């Protein structure tokens, strides 16, 4: 199955084209520019590098949240528009799940953290057991010190939230904490595609016309929902 995946949920932007387990192309940028300015250009470039036409895509994947409200809406609306035009299925993927998968190790709690602003992070806890990622807590928005409360086992931390609050984590957890390399803490569209492919294999798809992003926290601005095309 050939999948086009897009992530615009954080400061980074990532696009990938995959075919089963193969990554045909992937472009990831953290240049800080507005995703609305370059997301479609990156999509076109990824398709060109993969030597694939949009008509050859079998399914579309995107980051469903949590993350930047504006970023999420740009990515989701872009993918929903492409999927609706192509009459192909879509699957939304948790950015926290994708980050946890990128840092998966069998002997530690996996703690992805996405910077939520307002001195808070989006986070959840996972474990890698028998080559499967198991979610052990709900996705939440919390202050960093609250997120690591009662954590008394070795843990690996990843995501852009770690860049902001690494000192807090180290101070509170000491030797229990380790940190994934910076590159693993950037959301990759290829990871979004890999998770989506498993959903597509089970015929588990999202409704293009009634999908609601995983915001977790309410926006300061009124957000119309669901998306309609």
Explain what you see.
The protein is of the alpha/beta class. The protein has two domains: 2-95 and 187-201, 2-Layer Sandwich (Nucleotidyltransferase, domain 5); 96-185, 2-Layer Sandwich (Nucleotidyltransferase, domain 5). The protein is 31% helix and 28% strand. It contains six helices and twelve strands. The strands form three sheets. A five-stranded mixed beta sheet has the order 3-2-1-4-5, with helices on both faces. Strands 10-7-6-11-12 form a five-stranded mixed beta sheet, with helices on both faces. Strand 2 (13-19) and strand 3 form a beta hairpin. The protein starts with a strand and ends in a 28-residue tail after the last helix. Residues 220-229 have low confidence and may be disordered.
Order of helices and strands: EEEHEHEHEEEEEHEHEH
| The CATH C-level class name of the largest domain | Alpha Beta
**Taking strands numbered 1, 2, ... along the chain, how are they ordered across the largest sheet?**
3-2-1-4-5
Terminal residue distance: 25 Å
Percent of residues in helices comes to 25-40%
Kindly identify the CATH topology of the largest domain: Nucleotidyltransferase, domain 5
What value does the average pLDDT take?
Answer: 93
**Main β-sheet: number of strands, strand sense, barrel status?**
5 strands, mixed
Low-pLDDT segments: 220-229
> Please, how many domains?
2
What would CATH call the architecture of the largest domain? Answer: 2-Layer Sandwich
Q: Gyration radius, to the nearest Å?
A: 17 Å
């Amino acid at each position: 199955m050939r999948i086009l995946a897009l992530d615009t949920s954080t400061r980074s932007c990532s696009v990938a084209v995959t075919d089963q387990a193969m990554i045909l192309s992937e472009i990831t940028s953290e240049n800080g520019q507005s995703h609305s300015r370059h997301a479609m250009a990156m999509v076109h470039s990824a398709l060109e590098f993969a030597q694939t036409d949009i008509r050859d895509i079998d399914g579309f994947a995107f980051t469903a949240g949590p993350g930047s409200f504006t970023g999420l809406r740009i990515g989701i609306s872009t993918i929903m528009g492409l999927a609706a035009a192509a009459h192909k299925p879509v699957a939304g993927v948790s950015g926290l799940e994708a980050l946890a998968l990128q840092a998966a190790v069998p002997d530690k709690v996996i703690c992805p953290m996405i910077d939520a602003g307002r001195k808070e992070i989006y986070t959840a806890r996972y474990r890698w057991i028998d080559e499967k990622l198991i979610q052990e807590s709900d996705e939440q928005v919390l202050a960093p010190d609250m997120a690591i409360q009662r954590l008394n086992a070795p843990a690996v931390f990843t995501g852009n939230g770690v860049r902001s609050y690494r000192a807090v984590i180290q101070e509170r957890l000491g030797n229990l904490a380790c940190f994934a390399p910076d590159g693993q803490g950037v959301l990759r569209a290829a990871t979004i595609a890999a998770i989506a492919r498993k959903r597509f294999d089970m015929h588990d798809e999202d409704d293009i016309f009634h999908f609601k992003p995983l915001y977790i926290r309410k926006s300061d601005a009124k957000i119309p929902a669901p998306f309609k095309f």
